[in-house]
Amino acid sequence: MTKHLTIKETGLYLLARDNFLILTHRRPDGDTLGSAASLCRALKSVGKTAFLLANPETTPRYAPFTDGLDAPPDFSPACVVSVDTASEDLFPDNAQIYVNAVNLSIDHHPSNTGFADFSLLDAGRAACGELVLDLISEFAEVDTNIATALYVAVSTDTGCFSFDNTTADTFAVASKLASFGAPISELNRTLFRAKSRGRIAVEGLLFTNIEFHFNDHAAIVIISNAMSEQTGADEDDMDNIAALPVSIEGVEVGITIRELKNSPECKVSVRSVEGISANGICAYFGGGGHARAAGFTSSEPADVIKERLLPILAELLS
Amino acid sequence: MTKHLTIKETGLYLLARDNFLILTHRRPDGDTLGSAASLCRALKSVGKTAFLLANPETTPRYAPFTDGLDAPPDFSPACVVSVDTASEDLFPDNAQIYVNAVNLSIDHHPSNTGFADFSLLDAGRAACGELVLDLISEFAEVDTNIATALYVAVSTDTGCFSFDNTTADTFAVASKLASFGAPISELNRTLFRAKSRGRIAVEGLLFTNIEFHFNDHAAIVIISNAMSEQTGADEDDMDNIAALPVSIEGVEVGITIRELKNSPECKVSVRSVEGISANGICAYFGGGGHARAAGFTSSEPADVIKERLLPILAELLS
Predict the structure, then answer these.
(1) pLDDT digit string, tens, across residues B114-133
(2) B122 touches chain A (CB under 8 A)
């Protein structure tokens, strides 16, 4: 059983300890990395020794914010803290030796399993970074670097303040972080507004080739190898394109059929709104996934896959 | 010469008067309509008679927020107020009889010409709605409807808090508006997350027709009437497309040249990154606006406008 702490208690807990190692979760996002980086910097600013455990899956997008904070190989922590991580199985492989030895979990997931000795949990926060700001404010000054990392955490977990989790508190936190010197224009540009030339080309291609079916409730797009090559797009540019068709007003199922490079196979991604099982659609083709995001691969030509999907969609959407 | 008022003075000015008519600008956006609607509701809430002058170009996206506020045909105002409008030539045709009789201009454009008898101007505000919130707070309670209209104003003028004009104050305003009951999840979904079929088609068109110049530091796109028609896009779908070219990585100036429907003119929108004056570029063509977001209209063909812009861009980007 974990012991739940208040923000004030957690501040005192940290001040009473030293030699911190901060863990982030697998496939790290802005919230886990930004929360970890800011907490690490805050602890250092009050004279503590604190490091992050290097996360091998950190992408170039977020790497600058954790730069210089990773623990040296010989570091032996006295206090292991995890941020934004709901359960032990979400830690990366190199964190496995600490999984049963997490002293403090700071998190905003309602599904947090209470795996740590102590927990600072608040499921009402849009981002873990909101909670970390309050915690840091208990014991340290929020400098520009801390504010920057926290802005990364809060802005990315709320889709630049557009997702349903955004609250008055989220905006108040963002206001404070801007006041503390977070370069919000630059961060917004990098994190949200900037699109690569390749990405622009891919979206242009997708948006001009998308087909609508069944009173526009289904949107299907085929991306052939020839089309991909024409855009000059790389894998980063293709990231999450499967989410685009279902973001169109009125669309309940969005399907992306993409010919794989140097392979006779197609990768099919299905995204759906609540009430329609993406998983169920993919099961017809031996695939699977989640209720609203699933996929499969097929060695049939893209057009044939589409023709096989249509009657399934017809039944679902009728 | 206009007389400049403080927020407090403007509050007293309004309280001392009655029978208000509020004017919005041509091709009305969320900021002008949201500012006008909230001010109108606030004046009514303290017992004043106040109406908007119906803006014939109001799109379905924003129409719900001004619903029921338009002046009856026989209304004879005693005080004419304009919001978010930098100069007289930006008023719609049905406002022409009031153009030389604007008593108070409330605006955040640095290029405001001082056309009104009195002016409440603050070019430091991301949205006119930020200023209107402070003004309304001087004399009325901010109820849910007022907060909703102001959230429309502030969120749309900042691209859901992602544009460079967003500041700590903008976030503080958004936090207040959420506290006052603005339904931010619903508004964000309607205004930012959902994309219409027409919008998808417009973005597809824009992304496939964009041209890059000067080592890709300038991006220019021409949207002809034929192209617009082919997409079936309406004015709502065209909203804020000017922000897209400059959102591409490495682009420092993004220019959208759009042929206007049923008009021989083109509307040119210029967006720039810090250090490059969009205002300055537009000044060559008799236009204006903000440092990083400005525009002009021209009766020259789109290709000719582009050819005239290129040497100006060459000099700026060299």
Answers:
(1) 999 999 999 999 999 999 99
(2) no
Last residue of a domain, one of A177, A192, A207: A192
In chain B, % of residues over pLDDT 90: 82
Which residues of A, range 165-184, sit inside 8 Å of B by Cβ? 166-172, 174-176, 178-179, 184
Report CB contact under 8 Å: B203, A203: yes
What ipTM does this complex have? 0.81
Q: Which of A161, A192, A223 is the last residue of a domain?
A: A192
Six-digit token pair at B174?
């958004």
Residue range B43-72, pLDDT digits in tens: 999 999 999 999 999 998 999 999 999 999
Burial class (CB within 10 angstroms; exposed 0-12, middle 13-18, buried 19+) of B19: middle
**Stated pTM of the model:** 0.82
Task: Determine the pLDDT at residue A236.
Answer: 67
At position A284, the amino acid (one-letter code) is: Y
Co-location of B127 and B176 in the same domain: yes
Domain count, chain B: 2
CA pair distance A248, A254, nearest whole angstrom: 9
**Cβ–Cβ contact A274 with B under 8 A:** no
Q: What sign for the dihedral angle of Cα A131, A132, A133, A138?
A: positive
Mean pLDDT of chain A: 93
Looking at the structure, tell me whether residues A265 and A172 fall in a common domain.
no
Instruction: List the domain range (segments joined by +) for residue B25.
Output: 3-192
Residues A15, A162: one domain? yes
State whether A230 and A208 are in the same domain: yes
CATH number at residue B166: 3.90.1640.10
Domain co-membership, B117 together with B203: no
Contacts of A219 (CB under 8 A, 6+ apart): A210, A211, A212, A213, A245, A246, A248, A251, A253, A254, A255
Which parts of chain A register pLDDT below 50? none
pLDDT of B192 reads: 87
Residue contact B274–A169, C-beta within 8 A: no
